[in-house]
Design brief:
53% of the residues lie in helices and 14% in strands. By secondary structure, it is an alpha+beta fold. It folds into four domains: 2-69, no CATH class; 72-123 and 367-505, no CATH class; 130-357, no CATH class; 555-768, no CATH class. The strands form three sheets. Strands 1, 2, 3, 4, 5, 6, 7, 8, 9, 10 and 11 form an eleven-stranded mixed sheet that branches. Strands 14, 15, 16, 17, 18 and 19 form a six-stranded mixed sheet that branches. Strands 13-20-12-21 form a four-stranded antiparallel sheet, sandwiched between helices. It starts with a helix and ends with a helix.
Length: 902
């Protein structure tokens, strides 16, 4: 086999020498045959004739020999390739139109494949045995409502670890935005606190130094060591090995750098890559001290869920067995929890746990990440539809080109060229065009990747390279499919033509057959364009509803000021004094309209005190979740939250005043339906807690999610609150982003020691929940416009070609008395009729797809008649514009010139 392969390679590499050897060998055998006949007494001329007859033709023998060594196929392909390239050079306009159409379709699909692959399918870098690794999801049922969550407490992780037998690896990870650096240079960075077992999931080796071990990740206080990411090491330490042993200030502590992770290592994080990995026990002990507890606070309570758990099943363990063991561990942990926390057991039904994908987009739960993934999949489908439209357009162009070559093809067939040979030539031409389109498409994908990454990835996530093996393999497969889709119909149309009729016709023969094929392709483009434009309209309406939604506060005018003490210890009076000085400085800062202290920041922090107790009312927990807010009197004016009845907080509401509260409209209607809630009382906490009197009703607030009903909120004066964590909300004039720098610089000067101030526009917290609709609207609109342009081009080409085919008929009509405006209306009507059929088919497809797209929309019906009507109007207008020029050309046909041509 090796010798045969070597021979074939030599036949291609030394073609000239091999041909000479073949000629010499054939000449030798022919001469021997001639000499044999001469020796038998046959004259030389007759001997040569008989020898050639016995050989059956030297050229045939040469062809058989070339076929045997596999040279003919390569030669014919090379010939076809040269022929295709010459043809494209001769018609650059045609080549450019085809390549641009394919580049847009292939480029869009390549870019979207990179996004979807990263969000849903690609395993994290360096992960070993990804098919056996998963994240643990827990599900509980409370009052018939099922809730799936991922947040683990450290004791629950230990419970799982103790009870699992079907897993050989487990680890927990807590990823946080922490201050790195000191003073004004301090900056929020992503840091992962991990157990030492975390590194065992990966086949990664530190670039320098080492990873930390279980000896450094121990309770109650782990070693303050850190492993830097490769990018942070390069950008902040210039890639120097001397970084080992130096200290880095993370959050409130100093961590000794002991190693640097390899390039691209991010663990399981899908968002902004962490700049460092630190022992979980070191971070947890420091956070325990923040809350005034001993270092074991994070390890002793089941009420501080902040970790994600990852496991790796042993080889051969089925998913059912793994999930059964996880469910058993979760149920047992729930039973052990009350005894450990010394509280009554929580009423939870059917605890269940599973190992599922490490990708949040494929998680068995709902949330913005899942919606983003679904939108990304839909946009991927939209990109595929655009590619189909581009293929139909290119097929139309190739079909027109095949018609112009029909007589040439018929002549070649009549001269003995096989149909298989012609099909091969057409296939090579299509493949060349598809490859050129793919090459240009990679450039389009490189440009689009940054835009798509900004839409679908979290801020700070680097854009993945387009030229990577998985994407290139995808592009290669798409290129082959495009070559098949665009080249098959034109090739079959050309080689299946009737030779006699084709030789009699001119270059424009076969118009009716071409018109039927082209019309079908055009209707296909029009229907898919309607589908995309309807999707664009639905997402645009959803985005309009999202942005026009009254959330109960003015998002676009607010910034959030967070004072992070980073371990700086102050007496209680000093804390109060610092808060007052920060608030006063904010209130007097340029461009600030108002400011207030608050304990809960919408879409960021959540302060839960449990459901309230009302005399004569059953358990109110069944109504839903209650959000608690402790704030200063200026809170409602700062937030822009309207008081619909009663009053807000006054300066006279002091700590020794009667306890009061303001509640949301939904809370008032839920607890006291049909009654006036002003003057009603409720309490939160134990039996000794004081009752609060409702003095005001505030408008409803969406403070944790955009979807669903408004939440139950109750507000109390900050001076009457217990265990509150003061934060400052600021209402500014102009753009909040312009206020960040000046505010931070002014407030940082008031912070003691390593403490720092972080200033963030509130819109940054809301934007991730709006991103899926913004992304869907943008991408559906962009692809819809592209599809519309391609469909318009297809309609123009079909009508223009039909006019060209009917030139004689139109000339005769005009000669017999038809007016120019009648001819124009006839052609224009044909174009609008085709558009009408495409619109009808497209609307039917959109209605069929409505039940799948409905969950992705926001307060919008997937069958909105206004959207369908607007799309139909746009398509009719574009169709009229596309048919106008051919109609005008038809109206200007000169009958005298046409009749002279006959």
């Amino acid at each position: 086999m090796f010798s045969d392969l070597k021979y074939r390679v030599r036949s291609l590499a030394r073609r000239g020498a091999m041909e000479q050897e073949l000629d010499s060998e054939l000449r030798f055998h022919l001469d021997r045959e001639i000499e044999k006949h001469i020796a038998a007494g046959v004259p030389r001329a007759e001997a040569e004739r008989r020898a050639r007859l016995s050989f059956g033709g030297l050229d045939r023998i040469k062809d058989d020999t070339r076929d045997a060594r596999g040279v003919n196929v390569a030669e014919t392909v090379a010939q076809d390739l040269r022929y295709a390239l010459r043809g494209l050079r001769g018609r650059p306009g045609f080549a450019a139109a085809v390549v641009i159409a394919l580049a847009l379709g292939i480029g869009a699909n390549a870019a979207m494949f990179g996004v979807v692959d990263r969000m849903l399918f690609r395993a994290p870098a360096y992960l070993m045995h990804p098919e056996r690794v998963g994240q643990v999801y827990m599900t509980t049922t409370d009052h018939g409502r099922e809730d799936t969550y991922t947040s683990f407490e450290y004791p629950r992780y230990l419970d799982f670890q103790r009870l699992m037998r079907n897993f050989d690896r487990s680890a927990v990870v807590g990823t946080r935005s922490l201050a790195v650096g000191v003073g004004e240079s301090a900056k929020e960075q992503t840091v992962s606190a991990v157990t030492a077992s975390f590194f065992d999931f990966f086949d990664a080796r530190p670039v320098v130094g080492r990873f930390f071990t279980t000896a450094e990740d121990h309770t109650p206080v782990g070693a303050p060591v850190a492993v830097l990411s490769y990018d942070y090491w390069q950008s902040h330490y210039a890639g120097s090995d001397s970084v080992l042993g130096t200290a880095i200030h993370i959050d409130k502590g100093l961590y000794t750098i002991i190693g640097v992770a390899p390039r691209g290592f991010v663990g399981f994080v899908e968002g902004k890559p962490p700049i460092a990995f630190i022992p979980l026990t070191a971070y947890a002990a420091a956070k325990s001290a923040d809350f005034g507890h001993g270092p074991d606070f994070y390890y002793a309570t089941y009420h501080w869920g902040w970790l994600l758990m990852y496991v790796r099943a042993k080889a051969g363990v089925s998913a059912a067995a793994a999930n059964a063991e996880l469910t058993h561990a979760f149920a047992q942990s729930r039973l052990d929890e009350p005894a450990a926390d010394k509280v009554a057991p929580a009423a939870v039904e059917r605890p269940h746990a599973v190992m599922a994908s490490v990708h949040s987009g494929r998680a068995p739960k709902t949330g913005s990440s899942t919606i983003d993934a679904k939108v990304a999949l839909w946009v991927m489908g939209v990109a595929a539809v655009v590619l189909l439209i581009a293929c139909a357009n290119v097929a139309n162009l190739l079909l027109a080109r095949a018609i112009t070559r029909r007589r040439e093809v018929a002549l070649r067939l009549s001269l003995g060229v096989s149909r298989r040979r012609l099909l091969q030539q057409f296939a090579v031409e299509s493949l060349v065009l598809a490859c050129l389109g793919a090459a240009a498409g990679l450039l389009v994908a490189h440009w689009a990747a940054t835009l798509l990454n900004a839409m679908f990835a979290q801020p700070g996530v680097p854009t993945p390279p387009v030229l990577e093996p998985r994407t290139l393999l995808f592009v290669g497969l798409v290129t082959l499919a495009v070559a098949l889709l665009t080249g098959l119909a034109p090739a079959m149309h050309a080689v299946r033509s009737d030779l006699a009729s084709a030789l009699k016709e001119g270059s424009l023969g076969g118009g009716s057959r071409r018109s039927r094929a082209a019309t079908g392709l055009m209707l296909f483009q029009g229907a898919l364009s309607v589908l995309l434009l309807v999707g664009a309209g639905l997402f645009l309406r959803s985005l309009q509803h999202v942005r026009g939604m009254r959330m109960g506060f003015d998002v676009d005018s607010l910034v959030y000021v967070e004072a992070n003490m980073r371990g700086v210890k102050l007496a209680e009076a000093e804390y109060v004094n610092l808060d007052q000085r920060l608030l006063a400085a904010v209130q007097h800062a340029p461009g600030v309209e108002n400011a207030a202290v608050a304990s809960t920041i919408p879409f960021w922090t959540f302060e839960g005190q449990g459901a309230p107790y009302v005399v004569g009312k059953d358990s109110l927990a069944r109504l839903g979740n209650f959000t608690y807010e402790a704030a200063t009197p200026a809170y409602f004016a700062t937030m822009g939250t309207r008081i619909v009845r009663g009053r807000g907080f006054l300066p006279s509401d002091q700590a020794n005043s009667a306890p009061i509260a303001v509640i949301s409209q939904t809370m008032a209607d839920g607890i006291w339906p049909g009654e006036n809630a002003i003057g009603k009382q409720f309490r939160v906490g134990g039996d000794t807690a004081a009752f609060k009197t409702v003095v005001g009703i505030a408008e409803d607030v969406h403070g944790q999610r955009l979807r669903g009903d408004p939440e139950f909120w109750y507000y109390v004066p900050v001076v009457q609150a217990r265990d509150w964590n003061p934060q400052i909300l600021v209402r500014v004039k102009g753009r909040p982003a312009d206020a960040i720098g000046p505010l931070r610089k002014q407030l940082q000067a008031l912070m003691p020691g390593a403490a720092y101030v972080n200033v963030t526009p509130l819109s940054d917290f809301v934007a991730p929940d709006q991103r899926s609709w913004a992304s869907g609207a943008t991408m559906f609109t962009a692809f819809g416009i592209l599809a519309l342009a391609l469909a318009a081009l297809g309609l123009y080409s079909v009508i223009a070609y039909a006019v060209a085919q009917r030139t004689r008929e139109l000339g005769v009509r005009i000669a017999l008395g038809a007016r120019a405006d009648e001819i124009a209306r006839m052609v224009l009507g044909q174009g609008l009729a085709l558009a009408g059929i495409g619109i009808g088919v497209g609307c039917a497809l959109a209605l069929l797809a409505s039940r799948w797209v409905a969950p992705l929309l926001f307060a919008e019906s997937p069958r909105d008649p206004w959207v369908f009507g607007a799309v139909a109007a746009v398509l009719v207008t574009v169709a009229a514009a596309a048919a106008f020029i051919p109609a005008l050309r038809a109206a200007r046909v000169d009958p005298a010139r046409v009749l002279r041509m006959d």
